[in-house]
Structure formats: structure tokens, C-alpha cells
Amino acid sequence: MMEFRTQGMNGYAVKYSPFFDSKIAVGAAANFGLVGNGRVYVLNLTPRGILAQQTWDTQDAVYDIAWSEKNENQMIAATGDGSVKLFDVSVPAGPVQQWHEHNREVYAVTWNLQTKDTFASSSWDGTIRVYSPERPQAILTLPTHSCTYSTQYSPHSPAVISSVTSDSHLRIFDLRTPASASNHLVHLIPIHGQPPTQGPSYNPLRPRHPPSEALTHDWNKYRDTVVATAGVDQIIRTFDIRNPRSGPVALLEGHKYAVRRITWSPHLSDTLLSASYDMTCRVWSDGSTMGHPTPQAPGQLPVPGRQLGEMGGHTEFVTGVDWCLFGAEGWCASTAWDERLLVWDVRATMGP
Amino acid sequence: MSAAQKRLGQVSGHLAGSKSVIAPTEGGAAGSGRAKLLQKNPDDIVVTACLRTPFTKGGKGGFKDTAAADLLIGAFKALLERSKIDPALVEDIAVGSVLPPGGGATEFRAAALAAGFPVSAAVRSLNRQCSSGLQACVDIANQISAGMIEVGVGAGVESMSLQYGPGAVTEFSELLESHPEAANCKVPMGVLSEKMAKDRNVSRDVQDAFAASSYQKAQKAQETGLFDEEIAPLTVKWEDPKTDEVKTITVSKDDGIRPGVTAESLAKIKPAFAKDGSIHGGNASQISDGAAAVLLMKRSTAEKLGQQILGKYVAASVAGVAPLLMGIGPWAAIPKVFEKIGINKDDVDIFEINEAFASQCVWCANELGIDQKKINPKGGAIAFGHPLGCTGARQVSTLLYELRRRGEKVGVTSMCVGTGMGMAAVWVAE
């Protein structure tokens, strides 16, 4: 395990470069992101440890980072003052461009993985904005009417954007649909819906999942209709958007506080990694490659999926985690409020 | 509010929203049946008030001249007073009652109006024999969870003084008489219980010992005031049989509890239904008068209205058994409700099993392997009476107040039902 101290800054996001296996960007904030500056780090993994190549300070907290998919030197940062800033490693002085579109904290940014020419941000102000680096203003606003903690471009389609919000819903927007009153919204999936149960017997003690704030979600990198979500109720769920009304496919339970970030493996179609306020990162299989699962309780359909490993190296809320896209599958980085970035191998946390 | 405070609020919301298992949870492992039972959810059906009138001896007790509807008015008024709920919020009232002609439908509706409910509160009566009071509460709970109503009252009432008698059962037709199992439905309770006691080898000694302990527990509970919370005293007119003088009296205690009863003293009583029998007035439930009522709503509603939550209703079961073996009803119904919610007898702290007869109650308890200490800790129908339709609603307040007093959680109410049935329900005190 390698370590880097983000001295005086509490981590909020970590992202591996899509171009280099040894480059990591970290978004962090002073005073736990409550008040004060933010900082963006570009770090290099070297034989002498993790070294900072570049840092930029911002007026307000940095809550999320997304690398440009087009230019290996550029990344965008989501900040607390409602602005999205584009940084370039070759310009140490500060952001090369910024967009101030949101009225409240921007909590997530995502770069279009297919056409690579747009990016999007989501905010507590209840909107998602879509931008082009070439234009000074956002090119599209997608309302969610609810504090939007996370937004993602589908890795399979340049026109599909998703979000999860504090109203406990997963939204899928398809920008190919005509502009109308629905604002490109094609699916509104309740995350708290019941998993399928079997048999007619009504059990008043069946597991109940009241709506709770959803904080994070991610698209599966191999199965283009599978999305995982997680949040305050500690449960990671997977959904198949081909059948949005059937409820979650897998329920992965184990985190002891809210789940702050999840990310599917770039190497394995069933594996995902999570970071939680319970100070752990956990690696899971959603069971899709495990064959026939066994029922957990009478009257309940078998819920596939299980935890494969746990990393307890952090000593504060873990807020960011990301897989390395290159090399041996299993390398990842995590950042936390303990002012530490950890680079570690998931395989070392897994049991026999 | 400053931006920093808002951000802090947002993050603490993420933590507060977690039902974290890092904080110790009651009932052990989060996955166990009991732990699930103790979880609180906004759509739980909760009890925010429950009470009963005192029970008095049929024909001679404090309520011997009081109509069933008047008992019900007393229970309703006390319920409104205790809960301080706006009566206009109550949408439906179910009243279990066995003996009144026409099921009591007319006079119970009138009683609700007289007690202070507005005309918008609907009322119905229902009859599932001795489980009518429980059925009323369960029906209301089900109506609430199905979304039919928001707030309801489950109640039970019986004036055995005024309405008990041979008229309670219609003459059987030839078709009924010619079907052996159907004909069994009208065999009198005493006779069939005697037969069951013989069949199942429940000796008189065992019955008398159980009955005596019911009297002793009830006496002790009464002396130490353990019934005070559940009982709402009632002022009624009462005719003194000696002087024919009509007095106004306030009844605040069960008058059927006889002090100093022992198994030895019960052993001297002659059997009532057969010369060589084992059942007698001392080891069977008493004929009594009384009423009970339970106020039910969703937890979310209770919190919105600022109602005090005494406990919650979890689940209920009903089971049929052979009419001649009606006494084994709880033995059939209790495991059924356990299976529904995935708990077992060890998860339960108190069983309120109606003592229709000592023979059937003790048989069911032994057969289910229930610890004697958990059964009817304040005595039961043998000691203070069994006003048929009222008992099921009475058990709710007896159970919840005792669980709360002891700091225990899970309780079961159950009873055997004439014509061969049993009912059971699971409740959790809070």
C-alpha cells in the first residue's frame, strides 16, 4: 500500500488518469468541506513514492474531479461555490476556464466517455448542466428538482446521462429524445423499491426500505443496462434499466454507515468497489457470474451478490475510490477525510 | 443559516439517515427475527391508547344493570380522554361482541355517537366468538395498512349479565344436525372441554393448580396496582339486590378476583358438567361484564399527531380446529403467526392466552413448551372474567402495560374460539 498525505486537506474525490497508469487526481477541501479553500492535486506514482506534480488552490471546497477523456493534461473540478473549473497541468497558475452555472454546491462531474467533447455537472441546486469546453456557457440544463449528489455519462452511449438524488430516485436522461416537457428524462426509477419476493405469503416483517438519500451510482462497464446505486441506507443495489419497474436485481449489504462512492471494475463485469462513512472500502461481486444463488430467507427470492473484501486502512470517512484502468486488475486508490490518499491492491483484501 | 451550517446539516443527514448497526441494537444480530420485530418503520401499525373497564361478575357485579352499549361508551370516552385525539380523525370503529341480538350493530353506532365521536366515524360490530375483540383490533390494523383508513378503534364489549342465555344460538337445521362435524358446533363449551380434558389427559390437579395460580397472580397484581393503568373506572347505576335501591357507584376494580384461593380450596368444588368430571366454576373462566378499546394508527400518523406510542401490532393468525377440540385453538394459531414473521417462542416475553378453561390453556401451553412464568403474569379469565367479545381487546392493554412495566418487548395474545378456532397476534411494546 502506498500513501500520500493531503496535509490540511480532507479528501473528497480521487480519479485515475485515463491516459497514464501512474497519474492520479485528488479533489480535497479544508475543514471537511464545510468552510474554506479547496485543492486539486495531480499526483505521480513513482518508485520513490507518490509525488505531487501539481496543485491548484480554489476559493471553495473541491468535491469531485473528472479527467478529460480527450486531453491528457486536463481535468474538471466540482466546487462548493457552484462553479466548475477546467485545469490544465501545463498551466500551473490556475484554471484555464470556468463555468459558474449552479446556485449551490456542485457535487459531481463526469466527462463524456464516447464523443469526449462534453462534460456534465450536478449540484445541490437540483440540476444537471452539460458543457462543452469550447463554449463559455452550459449548453443544456436537466432539472432533477432534488439535491443531485451524483451524475454519470453512460460509458456505452454519448447521449445518456444518469443521476441519483436525495429523493431516492435514479434518473436516466437520453439527449437523443426530442426536447419536451420531460427534459429528456426517460426513466425515473425508485431506488427504495421492493426486491422481488416469492410466494403469496404476506410477511409484515419483510425487509422494508423506506426512501433514503442516494449519494452515488455508476454504470457497469461491460453490461450496458446495469447501474449500481448506493447512499444513506447503506445498501448497494444494482438495477437493470431494461426492466426499471422490477426493483433492484442485487442488494449488497454490509456497510455500516452511508455509502459515499461506488465504482464498477474496468476489468471484471461483476465486481465493484465502494467507499463509506464507516471508514472502509469494500469490494463486492453482484453475483452475476456466480451461477444460481441460494435463498437468504424463506419467502424471499435469492439475492445474488456478496462482499469479497474489505480495506480498513482509513481512519475517517472514506469519500473517494477509483480503479486503475491499466495493468494488473485490482489496483485502486482511495481518499478520505483522514487527509490520506491510499493506493492499494484490492486482491490483498480478499479472503481465500 | 450560514453556508457552512447548511453543508454540515447535509452531511449529518447522511449519517443520521443511517440505521447503523455500529450503535448497539437491541435484540442481538440485525438479521434475527426478533431484531426485525423491534425495528421501527413509519408504516408500522401502532397502539397509542388502550384500556378497559373493570370486569365485574355476571348477574351480581358492579355492571349487572349496565347495558353493553353503556359499557362501550365508558371505554370510548376514556379512550378519547387519555389519547386526547381529535375524535373527528377516527374513521372507523370495529366492536367485537358475541351475544347482542343483531350483533349490536345499531346500539354500538349509537354508543360511539353518545361517547363523543362525530357522525363521520363509522362503526361496525363483528362476531368471531371469544376472539371478537382481537379480530376487531386486527381488522382495524389491516384497514390502516391497506390504506382504507388512517385512524381507527378496535374494541370489544359484552354484558353477559343482560344478554347471556339460551337465545344466543339459533336452532340447528336438519342439514346441520345430520352432518356430524357441523352438529358438533353447538355442543356446549363446558361439555366439550370436559371431553377434551379427558381425551388429552389433563388431570383435575393440574387444572386446579393452574387456576389457583391465576387467582394468586391476579390478587397480587390487583393489590400492587398493576391493573391501574389499563383500567378506566366507570360510574354506573346499580340496583342493590337486598333493598332494590338504585345507587350510583363508581367501579374501578375487577370484582371477580377472590383472595386466598389455593389448589386445595379449589379441589373441594364439585365438577359442573359431569359427575366424574374435572371442570368446575373455580377452574373455568368467569361470566363477566366489561368493555375494552384500542386506538390504532400508522407510526407516521402517530408522530404527526404527537400521540404517545405504547406499542405496535405486528401480525395475527387464525386457525381452525375440530369443533369438539376448540380448546386447542391457541396451539394451532400461535405457531402459525410465529411462522409468518419468523420468530419462535423464545423471542416472546409474555403470552396472554385466554383462560377459557384451565384445562385447555394449560394443555396448549405445555404442548407449545411455553415457560409457565411467561403466561398470563397478571392472572387471566379464571380470576377476573371473560366477557366474551371483550377479551381480545382487553388482552392488548393487559399485555402492553405489563411489557412496558417490565421493560420487555414482545408479547402474544391468543385465545381459543368456540366452534373450533384459535387466534393469535404478536405485539411489541415500546
UniProtKB/TrEMBL annotation, chain A:
What Gene Ontology terms describe where this protein resides (cellular component)? cargo receptor complex; cytosol; peroxisomal matrix; peroxisomal membrane
Q: Which SMART domains match?
A: WD40
Q: Which GO terms describe its biological process?
A: protein import into peroxisome matrix, docking
Spell out the molecular function terms from Gene Ontology: peroxisome matrix targeting signal-2 binding
Where's it found, cell-wise? Cytoplasm, Cytosol; Peroxisome matrix
Can you say where the WD repeats lie in this chain? 252-285
Q: Which UniProt keywords apply?
A: Cytoplasm, Peroxisome, Protein transport, Repeat, Transport, WD repeat
The family note in this entry says:
Belongs to the WD repeat peroxin-7 family.
How is this protein named in the record? Peroxin-7
Origin species, per record, is: Glarea lozoyensis (strain ATCC 20868 / MF5171)
UniProtKB/TrEMBL annotation, chain B:
| Top-rank taxon | Eukaryota
What this protein catalyses is: an acyl-CoA + acetyl-CoA = a 3-oxoacyl-CoA + CoA
Among CDD domains, the record links this protein to:
thiolase
Matching entries from Pfam families are given as: Thiolase_C, Thiolase_N
**Cofactors named for this entry:** K(+)
Positions annotated as active site in the UniProt record: C130 (acyl-thioester intermediate), H386 (proton acceptor), C416 (proton acceptor)
* InterPro entries reported in the protein's UniProt record: Thiolase, Thiolase-like, Thiolase-like_sf_Thiolase, Thiolase_AS, Thiolase_C, Thiolase_CS, Thiolase_N
Pathway(s) served: Lipid metabolism; fatty acid metabolism
Q: What is its main location?
A: other
Q: Which GO terms describe its biological process?
A: fatty acid beta-oxidation; phenylacetate catabolic process
| Top-rank EC class of the record's enzyme | transferase
Matching PANTHER family: 3-KETOACYL-COA THIOLASE, PEROXISOMAL
- Name of the molecule in the record: acetyl-CoA C-acyltransferase
